[in-house]
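Re: the 294-residue chain
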Amino acid sequence: MLVRIERPLGEEIHVSDVRYRLNRLFNPDSGRCLDVAIDHGFFGERHFLNGIEDLASAIDTLVDAAPDAIQLTQGQAPKLQVHKGRQRPALVMRTDVANVYGAPLPDHMFSLMIPEPAKRGVQLDAAIIVVNLLDLPGRPEIREACVQNVLEAKADCEKYGMPLMVEPLVMKPVTADGTTGYTVNGDLDLILPIVRQAVELGADVIKADPTDDPADYHQVIRIAGDIPVLVRGGGRVPDRELLERTAAVLEQGAAGIVYGRNIVQHENPAGITRALMAMLHQGASVDEAEELIA
C-alpha cells in the first residue's frame, strides 16, 4: 500500500511502503538483524559513555566490522552517513530522550521526543526510527508520556513511509526504596502486555528485553504476532554468557538482537561483532562464534 501526501498545489507524491526501508535493516538471506546501539549519550549519564567517548572512532570500527545496523541520535548520525559504499550499516535513529537512568533518580523525570521524528529520519537516510515505551514502578506519568511519544511518532511515520521501532521496557527499582535507579525486569507476565501494547500502537519492529528464563521467549514472539522482535543486550556480561543468551533467543524465534555495551565496551568490538553476525546469518554455534572473537 502506498501512502499519499498532498503538496500545497494539490499535486500528489507517493511515499514508499515501510517495507522498502525494512529491507535495508534485515539480512535478505537470514531475515535477521544485528543492530549495534551507541545512542547512549542521549540519556545524559556518565557511565553510559564508557567505550564511546570517541564516538567517531567507535563508528569507524563498527563500520569496518559491518553489522546490519548502527543505532544513533540525530546529532551523531552524520558520523555514520559520511561513510561511502553500499555495505554501510543501516541507520537506526533514536528519537526520544529520557532521564530515567540516573542514580539517584532526579526529582523531576521526563521523556521527550524530537520534533517531526520521521521527517528527520528521512533527512538523515534512516532505515527506521526508534522510540521508548517505558514502564517504571510508581511513575505512571512517564508511561503516559511514552505512549504519547509513540502515537506522535507513528503519525509522522505514516506521512513519510518510515518504519517505527518501539522499545517496550519494564523496569524495577535497584533498591527497595526506589531512589537509586531502575534496572531491567525480566518478568514474563510484565513483558508480554507491554510488548503487545507496542504492537497495538503501530510498531513495525519491537525491541524488547530478554525474559528471566530464555526458554520463555517464544511467548514474547507469539504475543508480537507478525511483528519482528529484536532482543536487547543490557549491561556488560562475559562473552560466553552473551553468546549463549543470543543462541537461546534466536532458537526461540527472535528476529535479531540490539546490543550496545557488550560490543563497544568489548576489548575487541570487531571480533564480537563478527561472532554475533555469524550466529545470526550463518547459523554458527556458540563454540564456533567464540572462536571468531580473537
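Residues 140-160 form the longest helix (21 residues).
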